């Protein structure tokens, strides 16, 4: 019994086992280093300005006040862009008054995630049209703004009657944009500019590449 345990201990601490463990540790270290290098190169390719703009846009949509509405009761209510998407998806503007509820964003939320990822699509899809993904955040915000305005119009009536028009005007005056909206517009304009610039440069480079054989032939 003692001899068998001693032989097993000797086998476990044999040079071959130690060498194998060292090789596995070295392989894991190499894989980890490659992963870190790949992540670093990817981040460097994306660029800190784009990452900062994406972080600012995400923070503005999820945490900062996008709009405020002043009601006689319960007073002023602040809403993030993400909360507004939930109310749009629910299709029920009066739910704005019920702060205890948090409607699901549904397809609006999915579209928001796609819009946030839009500026980085060209890093994974090698097509010059992918460069236009930077237009998605601004386009999405415009669509949401139009949808919100339409929802308010629908909740207050068509506004043809004098009383309806007065109520509509007072309600629109009670709505004010928050810091989140302005920062979102700023970040979205940055992505729009860099996206359009990158697309035009890629298109010009492609045109020069096509013209080169023709110049040689001439």
Report on the structure:
The chain has 218 residues and is mainly alpha-helical. The protein folds into 2 domains: 46 residues; 171 residues, no CATH class. The protein contains 8 helices and 3 strands; from the N terminus they run αααββααααβα. A 3-stranded antiparallel β-sheet has the order 2-1-3. It is extended and about 85 Å long.
Q: Could you outline the blueprint of secondary structure elements for this entry?
A:
Elements: H1 2-12, H2 15-46, H3 48-62, E1 65-70, E2 76-80, H4 81-90, H5 106-117, H6 136-156, H7 162-174, E3 175-177, H8 179-217
Antiparallel strand pairs: 1-2, 1-3
Keywords:
about 5% strand; mainly alpha; 8 helices; about 220 residues
Helix fraction bin: over 70%
Shape: extended
Global mean pLDDT: 76
Tell me the distance between the termini: 92 Å
- Helix/strand-derived category reads mainly alpha
Low-pLDDT stretches? none
Nearest-angstrom radius of gyration? 28 Å
Order of helices and strands: HHHEEHHHHEH
Number of domains: 2
Q: Helix count?
A: 8
The proportion of residues in beta strands is 5-15%
Please report the total strand number as a whole number. 3
Strand order of the largest sheet: 2-1-3
Main β-sheet, in a few words?
Answer: 3 strands, antiparallel
